Amino acid sequence: MTHRHDMLEKVLDRVGSGVEAEIRLSTGVESLTRFANSFIHQNVSEEVSTMSLRVALDGRVASASGTVTDEETLERLVETAIDAAQRQPVDPDWPGVASPSITPATEHWDAETADAAAVERARKVKEFVDAGPSMEAAGYCSSSSSEVFFVNTRGHFAAGRATTAILDGIHQTGRSAGSGHQTDRALSGIDAHAVGSLAAQRAVDSVETYDIKPGEYEVVLSQECVATIAMFLGAYGFNAKVYDEGMSFVDMDTRQFDESFTMVDDALDGRGLAVPFDSEGTSRRRVELVVGGVTKGLTHDRRTAKKAGVESTGNALPGGDTFGPTATQVFVDQGEQTVDDMIAGVERGLYVATFNYCRVLDPKSLAVTGLTRNGTFVIENGKITGAVNGLRFTQSFVEALGPDRILGLGNDARWADSEFGPGMIHSPSVRLSSWNFTGGTDG
């Protein structure tokens, strides 16, 4: 850590006096094992170092980044950032760099995952493949580690590290596919057989499919579907930049959701997967977004916090000036029901395994259109009785979770994949009173 800190301080020295600057260095190893046709076809491992520098000269702000950290390259990085800043107009909303503060000691790190060899990922792949012996399997298993260091010209220093392991795959018959996913801090925490068994069962159950009429259906949605919903709520609603621009559905201190729905952003939770500070060096903290159905909070970076007259919540992201501060360690409270319990309560409806290709139609209502994928099943009289072809939906995510719309929450919350990627949403399955399906996947 001392070596990294010293290197960042040397870069600050190059920036010189009279300039505000902040530097973020991320180093780590990203390792990936891919498989297709039930065989591993690729093993790759890459050591990655990325240094990002942001400078402000009398309110003129610019950034530069690079992946090489030798003396000559760092000199050019500084020159590039300063030259770009000199050409910028004054940014009236520039909040300045963060003042010194104590970074939480929270660490989401597993040493065995950080050092995991290809053979360990291969074992997980084999367990996944073996769970569907008569099928063709495809997907990936990854293990990654990241150490992040931050320093700025006000004397603030922060450091943290985290690990992540992911298994994501499908089993395929000649006519169908089923998906399975698990993300964990530790590779040892991945239950590859269970993930593979779920994918295989979904594939088997989807061999014979038929079309159903579009319309409103009661649904049971998997963790992946709920993760996509939660990700869109965070990015397009609880994002303070979107709220400030008048494009958010958020109505503070109003019961916009069912009373059973609680959603928080909390990188310090013991189940988390991130470092305890954001790209501006601000410490992460628990942000209550929805509590008991009542909208309670927004995610802020330093820019939006300055405009709102509040403190940053530690949700700045690289490129956040464009996209705004977004919740990326979200926990949706689970309930007490199993998936089978929820299905048993449905007279006629659908179980959906995955959403795909979701796009916002109206941000104010968060009306979204998307497709179902890798498993859409008919529920009749409390049992799954068949599978249907993929469907298109057009649905307000806020309305779907509105008062008295949630009929059940699963006891199965986990890190789920989402439209924006894995490892950001910890969510349960959910039973909803209605979901609007508008056609098939071809129209």
Question: What would you note in describing this structure?
Answer:
By secondary structure, this protein is α+β, with helices and mostly antiparallel strands. It has two domains: 2-202, PmbA/TldD fold (2-Layer Sandwich); 203-229 and 334-440, no CATH class. Helices cover 23% and strands 38% of the residues. It has helices spanning 2-15, 71-86, 111-114, 118-130, 192-205, 223-236, 240-244, 302-308, 320-323, 339-344, 397-400, and strands at residues 20-36, 39-57, 60-66, 136-152, 157-172, 177-184, 209-210, 215-221, 263-265, 287-291, 294-295, 330-332, 348-362, 367-380, 383-388, 391-396, 406-409, 414-416, 425-427, 430-440. The strands form three sheets. Strands 3-2-1-4-5-6 form a six-stranded antiparallel β-sheet. A six-stranded mixed β-sheet has the order 11-10-9-12-19-18, covered by helices on one side. Strand 14 (367-380) and strand 15 (383-388) form a beta hairpin. Helix 4 (118-130) runs parallel beside helix 5. The longest helix has 16 residues, at 71-86. The mean pLDDT is 96.
